[in-house]
Specification:
The protein has 260 residues and is an alpha/beta fold. Helix content is 11%, strand content 25%. The chain has a single domain, classed as 3 Solenoid (UDP N-Acetylglucosamine Acyltransferase, domain 1). It is built from 2 helices and 24 strands. The chain is globular, with a radius of gyration of 23 Å. Residues 246-260 have low confidence and may be disordered. Keywords: Acyltransferase, Repeat, Transferase.
């Protein structure tokens, strides 16, 4: 028998020994904490958000949260683990009557992302973000060469992300960015300035690498064929069942075309 660093020294791995019982207890306890520690409209955990829409869930454990009275979360949002959402430069400030950070309905924010709203940040509905995205309305200034950069008063500019955008893993959205509708931001891109609707941007700094025209379509043309649409007779229940299956070729669509 070959051993490695993951092997059980007492040979009890997978045999229901004390180690297995402890492992299952830890896993069950963690799942319980994830359920009970999530923040929702019904279970705010003491976070006084301006609004949390129906069906929105902030996964446990959360990242840093402050300035909640100036944060408005839409309905049916999914906020991943360790996501930081802040309004204002520090806690316990009076930021006035209007929300500072507004997140629209149906937004998904991936694990470990940060949205830092020292001034207005608006994320439109149905924006999907990968993990470790960084969005900020504040940038350090370095006007005075004699002073440490971190001690100089920062510059702030509003950020706006239009509806329907996809923002890839590790992308950075800088102060003053105005991103249009249905824009794809490539992984690792650093975005500043204005991005038009229906564009693909990539690079650091990000530049437009593909655009869409009503007459000509995508330019340059897409290199991959369009995905097959979901058959009209597939039910939501069948789609959920697909998510629980491994890729075994099982037909759960009732004759609607096999594996989607």
């Amino acid at each position: 028998m070959k051993w490695n660093v993951f092997s059980s020294p007492d040979g009890q791995a997978g045999r229901g020994g004390r180690g297995g019982l402890a492992h299952r207890a830890v896993q069950a306890g963690w799942r319980w904490m994830q359920r009970r520690g999530a923040v929702t409209a019904e279970q705010t955990g003491g976070h006084p958000f301006r609004a949390i829409g129906h069906g929105t869930r902030l996964a446990f454990p959360q990242g840093t949260l402050f300035g909640e009275p100036w944060i408005r979360l839409g309905a049916h949002c999914i906020i991943g683990e360790q996501v930081t959402l802040t309004a204002g430069m520090m806690p316990d400030l009076d930021l006035g009557p209007d929300p500072i950070l507004t997140i629209g309905d149906g937004v998904v924010i991936g694990r470990g992302s940060h949205v830092i709203a020292d001034t207005t940040v608006t994320v439109g509905r149905d924006v999907y973000m990968g993990p470790y995205v960084y969005i900020t309305s504040t940038n350090h200034s370095y006007d005075d060469p004699e002073q440490p950069v971190g001690k100089q008063w920062p510059r702030m500019e509003p950020v706006e992300i239009g509806p329907g955008c996809w923002i890839g893993t590790n992308a950075v959205i800088l102060p003053g960015a105005r991103i249009g509708r249905n824009v794809v931001v490539a992984a690792g891109a650093v975005v500043r300035g204005e991005i038009p609707d229906h564009a693909v941007v990539a690079g650091a700094p990000a530049r437009v690498v593909r655009t869409w025209d009503k007459e000509a379509g995508w330019q340059p043309p897409l290199r991959t064929p369009a995905p097959r649409p979901i058959p009209a007779d597939v039910t939501p229940e069948q789609l959920l069942a697909l998510a629980d299956l491994e890729d075994t070729g099982t037909d759960v669509t009732g004759g609607a075309g096999g594996g989607l």
